[in-house]
Amino acid sequence: MSGSQVRMTYHRSLKEVQSDDTLARLLSDDRQQSPFDRLAWFEALAAHCGLDPLVISAMADGEHAILALEASGPRGHLRSLANWYTFRWRPLFSRPALLEPIAAALRSRSHRITLAGVPDEEGSATALEAAFRRAGWLVRRTRCDTNHYLTVGGRRWDDYLDARPGTLRTTLKRKAGKVSTRVLTRFDAAAWADYEEIYAQSWKPQEGAPAFLRAFAEAEGAAGRLRLGIAHKSGEPDGPAIAAQLWTVESGTAYIHKLAHREADTALSPGSVLTAALMRHVIEQDGVEEVDFGTGDDGYKRDWMEASRPRYRLQMVRPLAPRNWGMLARAALRSLAAAAKRR
């Protein structure tokens, strides 16, 4: 950036980030109003999911740009500091132009960078693509996932429910009396044990990092952002729980992180009944403006959400790096083959 002194920082340890007062403040709960943008989230990924962080920042004239990257893959190949628990990964910046010195600096540290799950409704994917192209990288941007979400738009619960598909409304009407629900706003060890037991008996694959998820739930509970839903068969409050869901709420958005029910109780539709209870809670009591159902184009998400938006993968390579030549040659051959088919 001409006319400005840009200060670059590189941290291979999140303890170093914590000791950098400016960077720690920019990544704090006070400044970042989404769980996926915080230092605490990155620390939990590193501690419980085996990720190896590299946090690089550029600052000038009170403005900033920050990339939280992961360096545990093949040597020289950097990725987003994220995994399957992350709804979306994005650069954090107050001035898009500061992404370019970061992209330029990374030329000496990496031959290839893959950033996945990047949104563009706020311009992140476009800003990254432009910055890395200007810095001399080859950039390929593709759609990699879908995020389903709901804009509440000031509606009451009854209005929202009336707009759901008829089959879902019928299910809720028939099953609501057979399932009792409760929503906890603080972490409860017994309820969490119910969640883990339900998950183990659900259709879901084995939990990838249960310690990460529990640590996240405990921290969100302490901050008052946790919404942990538990369902039982009606009339059996002391019996085994049959469904559980992990949501969080902050800054007008509810995030649906995890949901599971016992396969043996599928006929009761406990998952749908519990989702309805949590939706009602976040609309009526929390007054959220948006509900974010994470990634994945599952059909059931369309029953609850009303819109979707893309998530992108950006693949950046240095064309003169020998380790990229084989990949670039294969990409060129694929392009030639595709062009031949179109003739």
Q: What does this protein structure show overall?
A:
By secondary structure, this protein is α+β, with helices and mostly antiparallel strands. The protein is 36% helix and 28% strand. It has helices spanning 14-19, 21-26, 39-49, 99-105, 124-134, 157-162, 166-175, 189-200, 210-222, 270-284, 299-304, 322-342; strands spanning 7-11, 53-60, 63-70, 77-80, 92-93, 112-118, 138-151, 179-184, 226-233, 243-250, 253-261, 290-295, 307-317. Strands 1, 2, 3, 4, 5, 6, 7, 8, 9, 10, 11, 12 and 13 form a 13-stranded mixed β-sheet that branches.
Task: Give a short summary of the structure.
This is GNAT family N-acetyltransferase. The protein has 343 residues and is of the alpha+beta class.
- The chain-level structural class is alpha+beta
- Mean pLDDT figure: 93
Task: Quote the distance from N terminus to C terminus.
Answer: 45 Å
| Percentage of residues in strands | 25-35%
What is the N-to-C order of secondary-structure elements (H for helix, E for strand)?
EHHHEEEEHEHEHHEHHEEEHEHEH
CATH architecture of the largest domain: 3-Layer(aba) Sandwich
The CATH class of the largest domain, by name, is Alpha Beta
**Helix coverage percent of residues?**
25-40%
Looking at the structure, the CATH topology of the largest domain is Aminopeptidase
Main beta-sheet strand count, sense and barrel state = 13 strands, mixed
Question: What overall geometry do the principal axes of the alpha carbons give?
Answer: globular
Low-confidence stretches: none
Number of domains: 2
Radius of gyration: 22 Å
Number of helices: 12
Count of distinct strands: 13
